[in-house]
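User: Second chain of the day. Same drill as before.
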Amino acid sequence: MRYAILIYDSETANPSPEPPDPAAQGEVMSAYNGYTQMLRDRGVYLAGEALQPNPTATTLRQKDGQTITTDGPFAETKEGLGGFYMIDAPDLDVALDLAAQCPGIRYGSIEVRPIWETGTGAPEDQSVGAAAG
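Assistant: Same format as last time:
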């Protein structure tokens, strides 16, 4: 089963105006590179990306048939979504064990969420709209 490992941290929600310390940033990146390699070595890695901080986001909503855009996330939060991994694990217990090893757990919180499997694998079955229709 596929799972999303969602990485939340306070720095993503409220980035510092000061540039990050290069040595500290290097240590964090090294830890994430090692974690990514571990997931690859275990054969569970499907995808993963870091995200820009919350203030760079644009939120879209629809009201009365009109699309409304706002800068940043809709709600003020103490932690922001900083990145994610998508893994293929045999069950939730394995997914939780792998998520607990994510370096981001030292800086915020990790959410593990099953991917909503919506079809037989055919491209037309892979969207939420296809499942709802």
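Residues 129-133 have pLDDT under 50 and may be disordered.

User: Great, on to the next one.
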